[in-house]
Amino acid sequence: MAGGKTLTPKDVIYWYDGSYEGFLCCVFQCYQNRERPCDIWQLCRPETSLFPQTEILTDPVRAARVEASIRKMGQGVRRLMMYGFLNDSDGKELKLLRFLELCYQEGPRVMGQLAHPDVAAVMELEQQVSHEACKYREVLRFQEREGMLGAVIRPHHCVLPLLQNHFCDRLPEEDFVIFDNSHYLALLKRGKKVEYLELQEPVILPTPEAQEKQYQEMWKAFFKALTIEERRNYALQRSNLPKRYWEYMVEMQD
Amino acid sequence: MELLRKLEILADSAKYDVACTSSGSGRKGQPGKIGNTVQAGLCHTFTADGRCVSLLKVLLTNICAYDCKYCVNRRSNDLPRAAFTPRELAQLTIEFYRRNYIEGLFLSSAVLKNPDYTMEQMIQALELLRGEYGFNGYIHAKTIPGADPALVRRLGLLADRLSVNIELPSEASLSLLAPDKGRKAIFRPMGQIAQTAQENSRELQVYRSAPKFAPAGQSTQMIVGATPETDYQILNLTQGLYKKYSLKRVFFSAYIPVVEDSRLPALDVKPPLLREHRLYQADWLLRYYQFDAGEILDKENPNFNPYLDPKCNWAVNHYHLFPVDVNRAPYEMLLRVPGIGPRSAKRIRTARRQQSLDWEGLRRLGVVLKRAQYFITCKGYAGPHSPRREMVVRSLLDPKAFGYGSYQTSMFDNDTPLLAEAAPQVQQLAQEGMAPALAAKTVEEETVKWLAAKL
Question: Does ipTM exceed 0.85?
Answer without folding.
Answer: yes
